[in-house]
Design a protein that fits this description.
The protein has 300 residues and is an alpha+beta fold. The protein folds into 2 domains: 193 residues, no CATH class; 81 residues, no CATH class. Helix content is 68%, strand content 8%. The longest helix has 43 residues. 35% of the residues are buried. Keywords: Cell cycle, Cell division, Membrane, Transmembrane, Transmembrane helix. It comes from Pikeienuella piscinae. This is Cell division protein FtsX.
């Protein structure tokens, strides 16, 4: 069934004004649509923002690497670290390499050990921060050279950190999609029940129309427009509330800003969300009303 025709039918000024007034049911449809629109939009926006943040973190991690230098027994850690640094600086695909000083290592460990920890008394490895060029180096070749020139130096490209982020982002996308589908299904069920109840409550009008030769399609159209408009307006308002909340979320420590940082320049996503929710809800209500009318009228 063509979606454009459904929308045109719902908004047509020629829809027959014969449907019984059902203000309570119409209000319930709008309320349920607002609730489902809010939940679907909140889930979709949260999933989208979290996916963008995870993607950004993964991209940042893929652009850096770390070399840990732990000297073997009776080895000189500083000398091995300098050898590893020389290897990295001469490696194609490495943009820069920086050997962290003791003060930088202390600052790195202070969140866990405290600012006054004496790291000189701890077996802390020397760390080299490596910035990578696009494409990066030949990792196997780097590891081979480090093993020869700087035994005890370990290349870490943070792959074990990136993989969980990608898996988590994929799970969030699926959860957001499931939330939208469940909300749409709940709205469709509510509208179908409401349309069925309204048709049965107006059985006298329906019977009279059928006696004078009205087709089922004519009768069905009388219910489609009001139900679709109520669902669209309710879902649009609910999604608008969710979008406004998402747009005004306070910054989260360590994540710059969950919305602005997560959505970046895609504020159009927040702006489009209410209209998308209204369109989906309207089409869902149209389909559910048409299916319910077909079921009831065919059974008469």
């Amino acid at each position: 069934m063509n979606a454009l025709r459904l929308v045109q039918g719902a908004l047509s000024a020629k829809a027959p004004p014969i449907a019984p007034r059902a203000r309570v049911i119409g209000g319930l449809i709008a309320l349920v649509a607002a609730a489902t629109g809010f939940l679907a939009a909140a889930g979709a926006l949260t999933g989208f923002a979290a996916d963008r943040i995870a993607g950004r973190w993964s991209a940042e991690l893929s652009a850096v690497a770390t070399v840990r230098v732990s000297a073997p027994a009776e080895g000189d850690t500083d000398a091995i670290a300098l050898s590893a640094l020389a290897v990295l600086e001469s490696t194609p695909g490495v943009a820069s390499a920086h050997l962290l000083s003791e003060a930088e290592s202390r600052a790195l460990l202070s969140p866990w050990l405290g600012p006054d920890a004496d790291i000189a008394a701890l077996p802390v490895p020397a760390l080299i921060d490596v910035q990578l060029e696009p494409g990066g180096p030949d990792v196997e070749e780097v590891r081979r050279r480090l093993a020869l020139d700087a035994p005890g130096a370990v290349w870490d490209d943070h792959r074990e950190w990136r993989a969980p982020l990608i898996v988590a982002a994929r799970g969030l996308r699926r959860a957001a999609a499931a939330g939208v589908l469940l909300s749409t299904g709940a709205l469709a069920a509510m509208v179908a029940v409401a349309a069925t109840a309204t048709l049965w409550s107006g059985s006298g009008v329906v019977r009279t129309l059928k006696l004078i030769g009205a087709e089922d399609r004519f009768i069905s159209r009388a219910f489609e427009r009001p139900f679709a408009l109520r669902a669209a307006i309710g879902a649009g308002l609910g999604a608008l509330v969710a979008a406004l909340i998402a747009a005004n979320m306070p910054p989260v420590e360590g994540i710059e800003n969950f919305t602005a940082g997560g959505l970046g320049a895609d504020w159009r996503v927040i702006l489009i969300t209410p209209f998308a929710a209204a369109l989906i809800a309207g089409l869902t209500a149209l389909g559910a009303t048409r299916a319910a009318a077909h079921f009831v009228l065919r059974g008469r």
